Amino acid sequence: KNINATLLLFSCGTSGADMTSPALLLTFISGLTVAHYAAAGPPEPCPFDPCNVLKEINALKEALEARVVPKVAFSARTSKGGPYGHFQEDTTLTYNAVITNVGNAYNPPTGIFTAPVKGLYYFTYFAHGGGMDRIQLQLKKDGTVVAEIHDHPTNADTADNAGNAVFLELEQGNQVYVNLVAHAAVWGEGFATTFSGVLLSKS
């Protein structure tokens, strides 16, 4: 009788709802357990424990969340009013005009991208410069060069373009940035000198 009442209550309370919802299933199972205790009196130890079911559901939820790949992608350009560089020392190039920054892993004031999760990332960077200027940019991961673009100065043309790209396996917290080598320069205005990155897969 009590079990029938529980079934009726569950049926009425879930009318039009998703019967596969974990919360509703837990409600139904818990109701059956209570009805069983009420009808049979103190039962023998039961192998079914709603608390264990809840723990298993939470564990499954955490496992599914661990598989979800967060959206991480950025693109930024330099907006510095013209030629930029000719410094006496290497300088981190700050791409201060953000185009896209999904996940906010790129820091415009510092020019540094910090990996929010462990995974496989893809980075590209491009530069435009005057023909008489030397373009030399290094893509660095935690201070180590992983890619480079280099164009020697010449009076044979008035401008040059260069670019490179790389896949990187990063740990959470690794930093990636572009180093402007001492005495080199780029055209710091417009839309040709850019830095982009995206998380491809989480590991």
TrEMBL record:
Location(s) in or outside the cell: Secreted
Cleavable signal peptide: 1-40
Pfam families: C1q
InterPro entries: C1q_dom, Cerebellin_Synaptic_Org, Tumour_necrosis_fac-like_dom
One Gene Ontology cellular component annotation held by this UniProt entry: extracellular region
Domain C1q: 67-203
Keywords per UniProt: Secreted, Signal
Protein name: C1q domain-containing protein
Species in which this protein is naturally found: Oryzias latipes (Japanese rice fish)
